[in-house]
Amino acid sequence: MAKHWWQEVVVYQIYPRSFKDSNGDGVGDIRGIIEKLDYLEKLGIGAIWLSPVYQSPNDDNGYDISNYRSIMDEFGSMEDMDKLIAEADKRDIKVIMDLVVNHTSDEHQWFIEAKKGKDNPYRDYYIWKDPSENGGPPNDLTSMFSGSAWEFDEASGQYYLHLFSKKQPDLNWKNEEMRQSIYDMMNFWIDKGVGGFRMDVIDLIGKVPEEKILTNGPKLHDYLQEMHEATFGNHDLLTVGETMAVTPQTAKLYSNPSRKELSMVFQFQHVGLDKQKGKEKWDLKSIDIAELKEVLVKWQTELDGQSWNSLFWNNHDQPRIVSRWGNDQEYRVESAKMLAILLHMMKGTPYIYQGEEIGATGTPFSDISEIKDIESINMYHERLAEGYAKEEIIASINAKGRDNSRRPIPWNASRNGGFTSGTPWIALNENYKEINVEAALNNPNSVFYTYQKLIQLRKDHPIMVWGDFELVDTVDEVFSYYRMYNGERWLIVTNFSNEEQFFSSKEEIEEIIIQNTSDRVTTLKDITLQPWQAFVAKIK
Ligand code: GLC
Ligand code: CA
């Protein structure tokens, strides 16, 4: 496999609404991001994945786009965006745009036209169906945001499909002219010098709703190959597909280079392990480390040499990892560092979600009135109607809802964490006076410096990028593996638990590369790992 820049970098995801507000309206913006580029340079990242900044009525915080070629007023202007790309470039940071083309906003010009009638030229840009025989929706497909996926349009007597909110009508990828418009739009951004695209729910674009086929539809890969050819094919861009239902087998269809589709995909099998099988993410179950290991190891080994992995614990749809699978109380710092070391030492491109690098936690919500996210709000009402207790629903939201990771970044201990001089659109974490960027930068033992070091190690040691992966057999709670490259071997040892664990190896340490405890590890024979301990040893 040819080598690419996007295998060597670490990517940092910015959720603009919550990153930094430059003008006091309580909403983060592009100028705020520009202000913080020096901070990101200091961290060492090579690319920013920017959650959507396009014009949007914000039914789903920008994932409902009403114009792909203009910037949301709250976030700034196209001049700001051009400046962001140029300023990032000066610091060797590429900007990866979020490409949301499974659906648009219902306020997009295309949909406004489409609604005008059955013979409007844009009608077929979306998916319309007649009512079923009994007059109801065409079938029982449900939206990811609760309720039917079909919305009735009085004027034409037809239903349109929306796999997310009813303000996010699904585009009809069977329409060639629509596809061409998307490719033109992508080229508009490529010409601006962006570093690539993160493709929102891209595994849905081949859907066949009448047969209830959603992910992995028959034409999906034809469309991606066509897109590759029409847009980024001749540029070395990072393209990462958000693919909810992917397995190692199907991942290779997207990302084996010979197929000319994407650089890599985000798989979600590991973050689906703390839900009850066959149920929704709200139906909680605790994480089983043996299962987690099995899944992550499977991805490491099955893609090897054929496709490239993406590595992540967090994003704007997932709860904060230190609160989710670490220990955000007694061992917050240790567990945050351990999770970082465990992930960044694996083979693939690591993604950091804003705030992860300071070990940001979540803060429980106590009432639905505090919740902003449409997904949680819709689910709340649906489950309430089904007879669930309020407390149980709120507990699910606290465990899995998307608002916690969308709380503003605290930059310092001042009012509102220095995020805004106004009123933040959603409350900050309660602990922002202790856990904030300034405090992290001032403390040489903070989580920040572990991330910074991991990123620097990646730049200095090809083994971290290219080395082979091999699992070490241990007790369940210990996650240990080798990376091996050109005769060099690193042994990664992590304790994924609140208890001490036994570990032993016949290997001898040449050098400790990184660790999260103050006591130096000096031997690998019969050692007791402290709760959440993690270290990487270069082996003789
Ligand atoms: C993706 C996004 C999520 C959004 C959804 C609909 O899963 O990551 O935030 O709500 O797609 O666009
Ligand atoms: Ca603002």
UniProtKB/TrEMBL annotation:
InterPro entries: GH, GH13_cat_dom, Glyco_hydro_b, O16G_dom_2, SusG-like_C. Residues 13-406 form the Glycosyl hydrolase family 13 catalytic domain. Keywords: Glycosidase, Hydrolase. Pfam families: Alpha-amylase, SusG_C. One of its GO terms (biological process) is oligosaccharide catabolic process. Belongs to the glycosyl hydrolase 13 family. The lineage of its organism: Bacteria, Bacillati, Bacillota, Bacilli, Lactobacillales. It comes from Tetragenococcus muriaticus PMC-11-5. The keyword Hydrolase applies. This is Glucan 1,6-alpha-glucosidase. The keyword tRNA-binding does not apply. Its EC number is 3.2.1.70. One of its GO terms (molecular function) is alpha-amylase activity.
